[in-house]
Specification:
This protein has a single domain, classed as 3-Layer(aba) Sandwich (Rossmann fold). The chain is globular, with a radius of gyration of 17 Å. It has a seven-stranded parallel beta sheet, with helices on both faces. Helix 6 packs across helix 7. Helices cover 45% and strands 15% of the residues. The chain is an alpha/beta fold. It contains eight helices and seven strands, in the order E-H-E-H-E-H-E-H-E-H-E-H-H-H-E.
Length: 256
C-alpha cells in the first residue's frame, strides 16, 4: 500500500493556474495524490473551490485563490497567499489559457489578438517571473508551462492562438537556460485534442464538432486530462531530472 512517506511530492507545494477544470484540475488532483499541498488558481471561485474539495478528499491540503493571470498584482497576490499558507513553493504549472475561434488572420480583431497574448503568453511570463524567486528560496524545483500542438506547427484559422503557443515554447526554452544551474527545470507540455470544457467550446459542443476534432487525431480519439496530468507529473519528478527546456508533445500523433 502506498503511504505518504513514499509519495513523489511529500511535503512539497504546487501552484496550478487554470486549476478548476480540465487539464488543470486533473493535474491538481495528480499532485495531491502524490502528496503535494496545492494552490488551485483560477477565475471561477466555484470551480476552484470544488477542485479544493476534491483534493481534500485525497487527504491533502489545498487552497483556492481567485486570480486573473494577465494581471501582475493578481499573480503576486496568489503567490503571496501560497507562501503565507504553506511557507514554500516547489512546483508550478502555468496552464491557464483561452481558445480562439476558427477565423482567418485578416478577420481577427486586435482585441482578440491582445486577449490571446495577455492570457496565453503574458500569463505564463508573469507566472514564471514571480514563481522563480520563490522556488529558488525553496532550494529548487520545476515549472511546466502549457503550450499546444499549435506551438509546434501551424493550424488553419488559428493564427493568433498558434503565435502565442509558439511563444510559450520560446519563452520556456530561454527561461530554462537562465536557471539551468540553479536547480530549477522549466519545460513545456503541448497537448493535442483533449476532452475538456475548452474543447467543448471550441467544437461547439456538438457531436459533429467532436467528430471533426477526433478526425485530426491519428490515435483515433481525444486525449484525457489525466493523460496530460501524467506528463506534467513526470516533468516535475526526479524521473525527468536531466530534462529542461523541452517541449513534450502529447497529441496522439496529430503533429507528426
Amino acid at each position: 500500500m502506498e503511504t505518504k512517506e513514499n509519495k513523489l511530492f511529500k511535503d512539497k507545494v504546487a501552484f496550478i493556474t487554470g486549476g478548476g477544470t480540465g487539464i488543470g484540475l486533473a493535474t491538481a488532483l495528480a499532485f495531491a495524490k502524490e502528496g503535494a499541498s496545492v494552490c488551485v488558481v483560477g477565475l471561477s471561485e466555484k470551480d476552484i473551490q470544488e477542485a479544493v474539495n476534491c483534493i481534500k478528499q485525497e487527504g491533502t491540503e489545498a487552497i483556492a485563490v481567485k486570480c486573473d493571470v494577465q494581471r501582475a498584482e493578481d499573480v503576486k497576490a496568489a503567490l503571496d497567499q501560497t507562501i503565507k499558507t504553506y511557507g514554500r513553493l516547489d512546483y508550478a504549472f502555468n496552464n491557464a489559457g483561452v481558445e480562439q475561434a476558427q477565423i482567418a488572420l485578416a478577420d481577427i480583431t486586435e482585441e482578440e489578438f491582445d486577449r490571446q497574448m495577455n492570457i496565453n503568453l503574458k500569463g505564463v511570463f508573469l507566472g514564471m517571473k514571480y514563481q522563480i524567486p520563490l522556488i529558488l528560496k525553496s532550494g529548487g524545483g520545476a515549472i511546466v508551462n502549457t503550450s499546444s500542438g499549435a506551438g509546434v506547427k501551424g493550424f488553419k484559422g488559428q493564427a493568433a492562438y498558434t503565435a502565442v503557443k509558439h511563444g510559450v515554447i520560446g519563452l520556456t526554452r530561454s527561461a530554462a537556460l537562465d536557471y539551468a544551474t540553479d536547480n530549477i527545470r522549466i519545460n513545456v507540455v503541448a497537448p493535442g485534442m483533449i476532452d475538456t470544457p475548452m474543447m467543448d467550446r471550441f467544437t461547439g459542443g456538438t457531436e459533429q464538432g467532436r467528430k471533426g476534432a477526433i478526425s485530426q487525431e491519428p490515435i483515433g480519439r481525444m486525449g484525457t486530462p489525466e493523460e496530460i496530468a501524467n506528463a506534467v507529473i513526470w516533468l516535475c519528478s526526479d524521473a525527468s531530472s536531466f530534462v529542461t527546456g523541452h517541449a513534450l508533445v502529447a497529441d496522439g500523433g496529430q503533429t507528426v
